[in-house]
Amino acid sequence: MREQHLTVSRTALYHSAGGERDVREIWVVLHGFGMLAGDFLGWFRPAITPTRLIVAPEALNRYYTNPKTRRVGATWMTSHERLAEIDDYVRYLDQLLGEIRAQVGADVPVQVHAFSQGTATGCRWVALGKVRPTRLVLWGGGVPPDLDLEQHRDRLEAAQVSIVMGDRDQYISEDQVQAEAARLRAAGLGFRLERFKGGHVIPWPLLESFAAEGA
């Protein structure tokens, strides 16, 4: 038996909102595990404006999160064929951003906002892809441990990484938050750590403050 690979075209889905006129900023927002892009885009309603285009790509892998109700969710990758899946989603996000830039202008600044599982996707895209964001915001997640911080420090530094964690996040303990901060500091990576009262969510008041800074 021989294991072989074949690169094929896929039909990807994305949702967008805002940016009806004179787009001055693009936000690419990356959902978490088991979510769908359309639902996730709703989390960013406070940041939508006529001059800010928010784009929510949907991960290429879908599954039934509940076989009985047949609810569908998406995931950016699994441990199976992980390197190929990373290559696939980096190419996908690069192509999507190229399409968006062709519509609104090549010089419009980009922010990347990623949530939960999407934080690893966002970091890898910044490190390995063509995107050069003015800000990378990691909501409820951190920099993936397999990403070589020394090799990719310049790109991550240029992205002005912000890590945003709730003090009652059911998936990430306080010890894990502090360990992640210590790891990044030890690697010499500059970042901003924001805390809020709450769980594994994107809180609108804090999102509004990021939107105001972007404006």
Task: Give a verbal description of the structure.
The protein is of the alpha/beta class and 215 residues long. The chain is 34% helix and 23% strand. The protein is built from 6 helices and 9 strands. The radius of gyration is 17 Å and the shape is globular.
Briefly summarize what is shown.
The chain is an alpha/beta fold.
Shape: globular
Largest β-sheet summary: 7 strands, mixed
Task: Please count the beta strands (DSSP E, at least 2 residues each).
Answer: 9
Content of β-strand: 15-25%
Secondary-structure class: alpha/beta
Q: What gyration radius follows from the Cα positions, in whole Å?
A: 17 Å
List the helices and strands and how they pair.
Blueprint: E1 14-18, E2 25-30, H1 37-41, E3 52-57, E4 61-66, E5 71-75, H2 82-104, E6 110-115, H3 117-128, E7 135-139, H4 149-158, E8 161-166, H5 174-186, E9 192-196, H6 204-214
Parallel strand pairs: 2-3, 2-6, 6-7, 7-8, 8-9
Antiparallel strand pairs: 1-3, 4-5
